[in-house]
Amino acid sequence: MMILMVEDDEATAYLHRRALEATGHHVVVATSADDARHYLDELVFDAVLSDYNLSEQENGAELLLEVRCRYPHARRGLYSSGLPWRMKLAAQAGAHAVGDGVRESADLVLALAA
Length: 114
Hints:
It is built from 5 helices and 5 strands, in the order E-H-E-H-E-H-E-H-E-H. By secondary structure, the protein is of the alpha/beta class. 38% of the residues are buried.
């Protein structure tokens, strides 16, 4: 599976990328929504995973809404490592159907790696 991971934290991106690649997936890491758009214009992805907290201007839910419209074939996953965000994320994802699921970051990676 070709996966685009949108994660602005270098250490988190490294750990998640290694876990996914260990199970045979190819992972491209974008450090911002703008980087993600660039990769989406250049490559075809089976899945796009995004952290909720990307920048002051954008969040991962907004990016995944755009992905849903432009690339409807791609699976989408929204995650956050901050437990307090979980309820807000679930409500936003449900309201906008931004992804296949809203999870803690490690849970989402484990689900895809399986």
